[in-house]
Write a structure and sequence with these properties.
By secondary structure, this protein is of the alpha+beta class. The chain has 3 domains: about 110 residues, Roll (DNA Polymerase III, Chain A, domain 2), CATH 3.10.150; about 120 residues, DNA Polymerase III, subunit A, domain 2 (DNA Polymerase III, Chain A, domain 2); about 120 residues, DNA Polymerase III, Chain A, domain 2 (Roll), CATH 3.10.150.10. Helix content is about 20%, strand content about 45%. It has a 9-stranded antiparallel sheet. A hairpin with a 5-residue loop joins β25 and β26. α5 packs antiparallel against α6. The longest helix has 14 residues. It is elongated. The N and C termini lie far apart (about 65 Å).
Length: about 375
């Protein structure tokens, strides 16, 4: 193989591909990137058997070929090169990387045992990339990172009434985001592992245009122009979360989003190891306060202005759960809906009903 490439293109693609490599001690071949020079493109491919990615970059292919090299090593080398172009050339069991100033030789590995990335054939859908990624980002922080319950260590996606719905929960909080689709597409229910969701966001965040999604029983693929990514699906049942979303509320607060964020940042300084945040609401007295106390640092009470209605309430929450969901909401004002001391809090943007976050209270 002999290929001439633009260094900047390699610097964009290789770190994304290297993140997918397995970092696997028992299967060291998964630490590698497969480089394929064919036609007019150079393909960079990696997999950890759970997720796989292939990125194509335009290149001048003098001699077609395939080579397998250590991903971290290749990433480190390319990151230091300052020239505009470089040449990749294989000789025997080595890959030569040459520029106007560099002559680098790295060892290659046998390619025969490198796993293929499956081409997912099944139900096919086309959506706007930004909407899909924004929806995934809107809920992914609520997923559990425990491997004990894979169904909730995930993002759940399904279709209902011309909407594509994204949901995630760790049993203490829940986030749901709905996006409109032009017509029913018979999108099947899928559960994608949260570790793979993180990589899907990294790879496609900021990408314009449409994304093609293919789904079969065990896998899902995302493809956009020069990027192809596959992930396994979790074979399980996502919790029936709709039944825990309150249909009514007893206390309501409308507050400026930034005011609440600022108050939570101050409260975080004095929170304890369980991130406990006390909330005091007295609508008739126009009192809305958040309180935190740290046994070593001291304590803090912050008053927040807002429109208050309903019953008085004193309740505790994990402040981080509230803070996280506020990063997703884009409205200037948010509504906080309470239904009593042992009932969940619902947080939404005032003018955007397509997103909600549910947070369970903490026991005193």
């Amino acid at each position: 193989m002999k290929v001439e490439c633009i260094v900047e293109k390699l610097k964009e693609a290789i770190p994304q591909v290297d993140r997918i490599t397995g970092k696997n001690l028992t299967l060291p071949i998964l630490n590698s990137i497969l480089i394929i020079g064919s036609g007019k493109t150079l393909k960079l491919r990696a997999t950890n058997l759970d997720i796989g990615v292939e990125i194509e970059i335009p290149s001048k292919i003098e001699n077609e070929g395939v080579v397998l090299v250590n991903g971290s090593l290749l990433n480190s080398i390319i990151s230091t090169i300052t020239t505009k172009n470089l040449t990749l050339e294989t000789t025997q069991n080595n890959l030569h990387i040459t520029t106007d100033y560099n002559n680098i030789i790295i060892k290659t590995y046998p390619q025969d045992d490198f796993p293929t990335i499956p081409i997912v054939s099944g139900n096919e859908f086309v959506f706007e990339t930004k909407k899909i990624i924004q929806a995934i980002k809107a809920v992914s922080y609520s997923a559990s990172f425990s491997e004990i319950k894979p169904e909730i260590s995930s993002v759940y996606i399904y279709e209902n009434n011309s909407e594509l719905i994204f949901a995630a929960t760790d049993s203490f909080r829940l986030a749901e985001k709905r996006i409109k689709i032009k017509k029913p597409k018979d999108f099947p229910e899928v559960i994608i592992p949260i570790k793979n969701i993180i990589e899907i966001i990294r790879v496609f965040d900021g990408v314009d245009g449409d994304i093609n999604i293919s789904i079969n029983k065990n896998q899902i693929s995302f493809s956009h122009q020069n990027i192809y990514l596959t992930s396994r699906l979790i074979n399980g049942v996502f919790p029936d979360y709709k039944q825990i979303i309150p249909k009514e509320y007893k206390t309501k607060i409308i507050v400026l989003r930034q005011d609440l964020i600022t108050a939570l940042k101050t409260a975080a300084i004095f929170s304890g190891k369980f991130n406990e945040l006390g909330i005091i609401i007295k609508p008739k007295q126009k009192i809305f306060e958040v309180h935190t106390k740290h046994q070593d640092f001291g304590e803090n009470t912050t008053k927040i202005e807002g429109a208050l209605s309903g019953e008085d309430l004193e309740v505790n929450f994990n402040y981080k759960y509230i803070f996280d969901c506020l990063q997703t909401i884009t409205d200037d004002s948010v509504s906080l809906l309470f239904n009593g001391i042992h009932k969940p809090l619902i947080i939404q943007g005032v003018s955007d009903m397509s997103f909600l976050c549910l947070v369970m209270p903490m026991n005193k």
